[in-house]
Specification:
Layout: E1 9-13, H1 17-28, E2 32-36, H2 40-52, H3 57-62, H4 71-76, E3 78-81, H5 84-88, E4 93-96, H6 102-115, E5 121-124, H7 131-136, E6 144-149, E7 158-162, H8 169-181, E8 185-189, H9 198-214, H10 220-230, H11 237-244, H12 246-260, H13 269-276
Parallel strand pairs: 1-2, 1-4, 2-3, 4-5, 5-6, 7-8
Antiparallel strand pairs: 6-7
Acetoacetyl-coenzyme A is lined by residues 55, 59-60, 63, 65, 127, 150-152, 154-156, 199, 202, 234-235, 240, 244.
Length: 293
């Protein structure tokens, strides 16, 4: 089993909102990273956000989180490619961060398993899907776990480490150790339940807010203010939903609803229609609120 201190090379498969933030997080902690996505345009946008985004490396330097003269070296530690084999061939640790779609994730896990070195650990950043199902798509289910980062990944302090049915104790320990090296606080989720700990609770707040808006209880601004000023949330539930991405939020609540049958997670019509309309949140400039590009 690979040791935490032997892990040097990281591959991040899926270089969208989370994948690019996760790649940045590893590079800021000194790791070499290769990011993979399906086209050059997405990879370029991911690198732009790593460099100059609201939580990018330049902002980290400006805020004194990293030495100013390290910003360039951090960016240079991240390479990108559209070639999956190239991305994972030398990796010790692979983070999957593609769309929240189990069939896609199983396909990606099978491809990564074929191309990655036998010692490599493969983790998923899924918000809600079963780790055990992704592990079953590989020939190394003992070396597969969940490693759930929060958005924005370079800033948020929590990482959930999820044990699939066949994940070995050694793998859980290595993933926990890597999270600590990234400066995060890991929590261990011992059973592979949908939504794990944080999303089982956090998603309900966003869904309840959308249902209130739909039912005319209050405006989105007042609902956001209620939670920011009354509960000291750093963002209101609509601001948070826009940050997460309404497409991802819909996929996550559908996944939790489908697995549990719990009607509290059934997506409100308004959320479905917003996604159909393409108002996906901050990443496209419009969700519940509008954002300057
Ligand atoms: N590396 C390290 N730190 C960085 C950084 C970087 N690259 N870039 C910025 N920071 C630091 C800043 O220095 C600042 O730290 P200090 O407070 O010590 O100065 C901190 O990050 C916050 O940065 P800002 O001051 O620029 O931003 P802010 O105060 O407006 O906070 C926010 C922004 C962190 C997003 C805050 O609004 C917040 O916490 N919102 C809630 C986010 C949340 O709940 N996320 C979870 C979403 S759900 C999810 O992710 C799970 C899922 O599966 C869907
Ligand atoms: P996103 O839509 O921003 O990015 C997903 C990326 O996956 C896209 O760039 C897409 O092109 C890429 N992709 C699709 N198929 C691929 C393949 N075969 N190989 C490589 N890349 C491929 O979504 P996101 O918000 O970054 O979410 C990614 C994952 O992280 C999901 O599982 C989501 O549930 C989870 N997550 C999201 C958040 C959040 O707040 N958005 C927080 C924590 C976890």
């Amino acid at each position: 089993m690979v040791k935490v201190e032997d892990i040097k090379n990281i591959a991040v498969v899926g270089f969208g909102l989370m994948g690019s933030g996760i790649a940045q997080t590893f590079a800021q902690a000194g790791y070499n990273v290769v990011g993979r996505d399906v086209n050059e345009d997405i990879l370029r946008r991911g690198m732009e956000s790593i460099k100059s985004g609201p939580f990018g490396v330049l902002k980290a330097a400006e805020k004194g989180k990293i030495p100013k003269d390290e910003a360039e070296a951090i960016i240079n530690r991240i390479k990108t490619t559209t070639d999956l084999k190239e991305a994972v061939k030398d990796a010790d640790f692979i983070v999957e961060a593609v769309f929240e779609d189990l069939e896609l994730k199983k396909k990606v896990f099978a491809e990564v398993d074929e191309a990655a070195p036998p010692h490599a650990i493969i983790v998923s950043n899924t918000s809600s899907l079963p780790i055990t199902a992704m592990a079953a798509a590989t020939k190394r289910p003992d070396k597969v776990a969940g490693m759930h980062f929060f958005n924005p990944a370079p800033v948020m302090r929590l990482v959930e480490v999820i044990r699939g049915l066949q994940t070995s104790d050694e793998t859980v320990e290595v993933v926990r150790g890597v999270a600590i090296k990234l400066g995060k606080t890991p929590v261990i989720v011992n059973r592979d339940i949908t939504g794990f700990i944080a999303n089982r609770i956090g998603i309900l707040g966003m869904l309840e807010a959308i249902k209130m808006l739909e039912n005319g209880v209050a405006t989105k601004e007042d609902i956001d203010n209620a939670m920011k000023l009354g509960y000291n949330w750093p963002m209101g539930p609509f601001e948070l939903a826009d940050l997460v991405g309404l497409d991802t939020l819909l996929l996550v609540c559908n996944a939790i609803y489908n697995e549990t049958g719990d009607p509290r997670y059934f997506p409100p019509d308004l959320l479905k229609r917003m996604v159909t309309a393409g108002n996906l949140g901050r990443k496209v400039g419009k969700g519940f609120y509008e954002y300057k590009k």
